[in-house]
Design goal:
The complex is a heterodimer of chains A (171) and B (298).
Chain A: H1 3-18, E1 28-31, E2 34-44, E3 49-63, E4 66-67, E5 70-72, E6 76-78, E7 86-94, E8 99-106, E9 109-114, E10 117-122, E11 127-133, H2 134-140, E12 142-148, H3 149-152, E13 153-155, E14 160-163, E15 167-170
Parallel strand pairs in A: 2-12, 10-14
Antiparallel strand pairs in A: 1-2, 2-7, 3-4, 3-6, 3-8, 3-9, 5-7, 8-11, 9-10, 12-15, 13-14
Chain B: H1 3-20, E1 24-30, E2 35-38, E3 43-53, E4 60-62, E5 64-68, E6 81-83, E7 88-97, H2 100-107, E8 116-125, E9 128-138, H3 152-157, H4 159-166, E10 171-172, E11 177-178, H5 181-189, H6 203-225, H7 231-240, H8 246-262, H9 279-285
Parallel strand pairs in B: 2-9
Antiparallel strand pairs in B: 1-3, 3-7, 4-6, 5-8, 8-9, 10-11
Helix pairs in contact in B: 4-6, 6-8, 7-8
The chains are: A alpha+beta (171), B alpha+beta (298).
Chain lengths: 171, 298
């Protein structure tokens, strides 16, 4: 059997097992030409933090430089709330778009509280950017930005921390 | 690779992502720190990026490594590459920072023209990506003259200090007059995008809020710490809030923000007690004094 034929058979088997190439019915759709995907924000590994209050100043999405419609949701969140993936927006992706560029910007300042003390959370310039293939967004109809709090707050002095988002993007 | 091969690769990749849940993490530092303040010149700064496989049982492949902030870092890694369980790859380079001006040139590489370089690394694997960052902050040596300043974040969480500022009299910011702690906190905790009622701010309302809150902080720095706030910058900012020139408003917002950051490391005047930091309480009593306008950016 030729190699390409073997691969084609494997693809067929995997398509049956995984649904690869089939219709992604979990995707939110308003109409046939636009798919909507949720964008969520989750804080994890808070250690001794009891509050990490951050504001969001911008959530943008674009495809090949052209802006996509984003319906905003929560923009003031506490990243220490356990297992709370905050819905921060929904992006409308027209048919034919294959990749979406996201930019999530934090407001300049927030605050933190912890067993060791409280302080200001300086987030000037803090941003998470990522590129998402639409195929990945279709996996569960959403993307979740996980912010590792244990690595994202850099303490400066007794009552100040800087927010440098160490984040991972999951679909 | 022919079409069948490419299709197979994509599907295998997607399938592997679902089944294997590969995962990578990265760490970015300047001289081993996530935040490095440079205030002595000339100096060398060691830049380090480590990419690690964090999946407990499977190897992970870095498909792409993207850098924001320092173009020289783009050649440090040659993806795709695979890391086994527990493996990592570290690359370094050295920056020669000859002067404060050189440092500012580096800081501008993130396309924000301030004194801070936000340097970000993105690593992408099948069905996910990770981002890490580090900051390099340029400081003049010696610090510019003038009293101590504190940032918006400081006043956002130190109610006692903000109360002491408000106690010195109402602050006319054109879009609102602040005459209580609740108003002052309301301005600082306000969402740039929305009003408390849930309605969206227009572009002008948003930009004006951003300038007004920095201006209030600057006035508090002047009132409480004797910081040297330029009368010209103050007057220009107040005048700008009576125009619809949003480019000017945002340019001044950056300047006033820079002023509020400039002497952040200078100690507060002896005897001044800013009180404890109470962010949750401060947010809970904040009452946004702004309201929608009909202004539109020109």
């Amino acid at each position: 059997m030729k190699t390409s034929l073997r691969i084609a058979l494997w693809v067929a088997v995997l398509s049956v097992v995984t649904g690869c190439g089939g219709d992604k019915t979990r995707t939110v759709k308003n109409d046939a030409s636009v798919q909507k995907f949720e964008i969520r924000l989750l804080g994890e590994k808070p250690a001794n933090l009891t509050a990490a209050l951050v504001g969001l100043s911008g959530l943008d999405a674009s495809a090949r430089g052209a802006p996509l419609e984003v319906e905003p949701a929560a923009d003031r969140v506490d990243l220490t709330v356990p297992n709370q993936a905050w819905l921060i927006g929904k992006v409308a992706v027209p048919e034919g778009v294959t990749e979406v560029d996201f930019s999530l910007r934090f407001d300049d300042a927030g605050g933190y509280e912890s067993a060791a003390g409280n302080g200001a959370l300086e987030a000037r310039g803090a941003e998470v950017r990522w590129r998402a293939p639409v195929e990945w967004l279709q996996t569960h109809g959403h993307v979740v930005v996980h912010v590792d709090l244990s690595r994202s707050l850099v303490y400066r002095g007794v009552d100040t921390a800087r927010l440098l988002p160490n984040a991972s993007i999951h679909y | 690779m022919n079409v069948v091969g490419r299709v197979a690769s994509v599907c295998l990749l997607a399938w592997a992502g679902v089944a294997g849940a590969h995962e990578l993490a990265c760490e970015k530092t300047f001289n081993g720190e996530q935040v490095l303040v440079v205030d002595q010149y000339p100096t060398d700064v060691k830049v380090s990026i480590t990419i690690s496989n964090t999946h407990p049982t499977s190897p992970s492949t870095a498909l792409a490594v993207d850098i924001i902030g320092l173009p020289a870092e783009n050649t440090l890694f040659t993806p795709p590459f695979t890391l086994g369980v527990g493996e990592s790859q570290t690359q370094t380079l050295t920056l020669h920072v000859n002067s404060y001006e050189t440092c500012l040139q580096l800081a501008a590489m993130d396309n924000v023209f301030d004194a801070t370089l936000n340097n970000t690394v993105k690593v992408t694997w099948d069905l996910g990506s990770a981002q890490c960052g580090a900051q390099l902050i340029c400081r003049e040596s010696p610090p510019p003259p003038g009293g101590a300043t504190r940032t918006m974040g400081f006043f956002k969480v130190h109610e006692q200090a903000l109360q002491a500022c408000v106690d010195q009299g109402p602050i006319d910011l054109k879009i609102a007059t602040v005459d209580s702690l609740e108003d002052a906190l309301g301005l600082l905790w306000a969402s740039p995008n929305k009003y408390e009622s849930g309605g969206m701010r227009s572009q002008w309302d948003r930009d004006a809020l951003l300038l007004a809150r920095q201006l209030m902080v600057a006035i508090c720095n002047q009132r409480l710490f004797g910081a040297d706030l330029s009368a010209t910058l103050l007057e220009q900012s107040l005048s700008a809030l009576e125009t619809t020139n949003c480019s000017l408003i945002m340019s001044l917002e950056r300047q006033v923000d820079d002023y509020n950051n400039a002497n952040d490391s200078v100690p507060l005047p002896s005897g001044f007690d800013p009180g404890p930091a109470t962010p949750q309480h401060a947010e809970s009593i904040a009452d946004d004094p702004t309201s929608p306008t009909s202004n539109t950016c020109q």
